[in-house]
Write a structure and sequence with these properties.
Jelly Rolls, single chain, 27% helix
Amino acid sequence: MFSREEIIQFILKSLQENAIDLKDQFEKSKKSIGFFYLDDLLPLEITFLINEAFPDPKKTSLKKSLKQNKYISAQVNEHPQIIEDIIFAFQSPLIVKAIEKICSINNLEPDPNLYAGGISMMGNESFLNPHLDNSHDKDRLRFRALNLLYYVTPDWNLKDGGNLELWPQGPKNKQVTIHAKFNRLVVMATHKKSWHSVSRVTIDRFRCCVSNYYFTRIPIDNQTSFHVTTFRGRPEQKLRDRLLQVDSFLRMQIRKVFKKGIVENPHVYKKDKS
């Protein structure tokens, strides 16, 4: 088994060796949705071990609605140690600093609460509709800045679905598809124009992903207003689009009265949970 420190060093080496190309990717795309992706992030042996450690879906939480269909878990201490190690390896100051340099964003802060982070699994017919992530952390003290997605499912083909989609011109226009390729890290900026989604899975397998968010005290787009996670329909989903806009409007009105919502979002890491 590999230690967390060894995993950190492997990630750091990959980022540093590819820093020029990654910085170029992010710079070329940042006028709309800044992003980069890096293949072969870790030695294959480690990535296989991470994938094998993903839990039975019954041990995770299913989120299923007009917005999405996926399994998630932030309570990473309930899973094999390597799951916790890979998630928190991305929160190492060494990794955070390396990504700061690549993206030219200062003072990034990882999220030990794993608010909307952790692991996700998407099986046959799973999807995630176009949406904007919640603008803040769980306490509304910091602004969401970057989303880190690490894909760990072997032999995952583009045609299998479950791929990240970016909508640089908004959800009514054409998307950019980024293959959820095995051992690929994707880092994307999150702000008020960062519309993204996940295409519907078309095979009877689970696409597994490790996710983290980084936050800043000053928003990267200089827009300080708050917004809830905001979903839309795909261009062909006219009725769903109207329903999801109404849903987002109502939830936003609630948050104007109840700053943290009526009930606490359960998608956080509760370290003291037995």
